[in-house]
Amino acid sequence: MARILLVDDSKFQRKCMSKMLTDLGHDVSQAENGQMGLQMLDEAKPDLIITDLLMPVLDGIGLLRGLNEVKHPVPALVVSADIQEATKTECMQLGAKSVPQ
Question: Is the pTM of this model over 0.85?
Fold first, then answer.
């Protein structure tokens, strides 16, 4: 299956999502903020990044910008309670993928 890098400052969210993804057969690596996520790219070699937006040290927007700076081709999926259209637009401009509604 896929190698997934899960980036979220909530230990509870990481645990729940990791369990669900692992049960589906995926290999999951975890980072507690965007900076750690960027540092783990070479080691984790993810096929997909799932990230929260609001995190300390480096947030999800910063993570997306960092992925663009290092020209890392891995797709990113943003999972957030932030429902502002401006936030969604910025994430999409930075390469986040949209899930059809």
Answer: yes
